[in-house]
Structures are given as structure tokens and as C-alpha cells.
């Protein structure tokens, strides 16, 4: 959820005075309060104007991204690095993951939205017709799969019957031992 500048300003001022602004509906109180604390830290470092929504999207260079990722990998917390850089911690987390998977080159890639003109047309591919030998093998494999499936079901039923038989024998032994103990108890 995006909050306007006046809302953020009010939330930070109330937080600094020891109060909490009421939590909007549909948002967890704990996470919402964490967000207010983060806004307060950002305002402390950069000033209140930094809470405004940016009017333009910032392009970060690969070197800049790498510098932040290196700080995280060196042991600093992602949240503190993100706050000091003035970016969202989720974005920094994404950069760290990209770096771990693709290395420095992953940070160098510029990804943006492509227009529909740039998107290649998807070709509908139809599977090629099977050769007679492939068709025979497919029929053989399907028959083998059905045989194995049937055999598996039979084994499961056999195991279930064996468990039932063992349970019945155990129950009979318990009843027999109860009868024997009753006979011994009566004089």
C-alpha cells in the first residue's frame, strides 16, 4: 500500500511524540509500526522531504548496486544498508540474490518493461508425428506402466491384509491373556 506524504509525516511526528497513528484496515499492526519506525529513520538521515514519493525513477549503476551488495555480504544488515542508501530493503534483497546467482554481470543487466512491439510472436508448435518404432515403444511403455500400477496396488492390498491379520492376532492374544488372568484371580 502506498501512503501519501502527509500521512507519512503525521505518522512520523506521532511516533516521535510517543504515540502511534491508527493502523489502516487490512494491514497488520506489527508490520505497519515497523514501517513507521523505518520512515522515522529515513527522515532522521535524509530529512522529512525524503518521505515524498519520487517523481522520477532512479537508475542505479552496477557499481553502485555492487557497493551496497558488498556491504551486505560483509556483514551489515540489509535493512541498515537500505536505509542508509535510501532504497527499499526488498530491492536490496533482490540485488543480493541476483549477485549470488549471476555475479557482477547480473547487477549490470538493465531490466525494464518491454513494449508489445518488442515481444516476439509465440509460435504454436505441434508435436511431430511419431515414427512406427516410437509408436510401438509408446504402446509398450504404457502397457508396462499399467502392469506396474496394478502390481503396486496388489502389493499395497497384501500389506494391508497382513497388518489386519497381525492386529487381529494381537487382539486375540490380549483377550486370551485377560481370560487367563481372570481364571487365576478367582479361587
Summarize the structure in words:
The protein starts with a helix and ends with a helix. The chain has three domains: 1-53, no CATH class; 61-111, no CATH class; 130-187. With 187 residues, it is an all-alpha fold. The chain has helices spanning 5-16, 29-46, 62-73, 78-85, 89-102, 104-108, 132-185.
What layout of secondary structure does this protein have?
Layout: H1 5-16, H2 29-46, H3 62-73, H4 78-85, H5 89-102, H6 104-108, H7 132-185
Helix pairs in contact: 1-2, 3-5, 4-5
Number of domains: 3
Per DSSP, the total helix count is 7
Shape: flat
- Beta content: under 5%
Radius of gyration: 34 Å
Alpha-beta classification:
mainly alpha
pLDDT < 50 runs, ≥5 residues: none
User: Mind describing the biggest β-sheet?
Assistant: none
Terminal Cα span = 82 Å
Q: Give the oligomer, counting copies of the same chain as homo and different chains as hetero.
A: single chain
Concise synopsis of the structure shown:
Helix content is 66%, strand content 0%. It is an all-alpha fold and 187 residues long.
Defining key terms:
about 190 residues, mainly alpha, 3 domains, 7 helices, about 0% strand
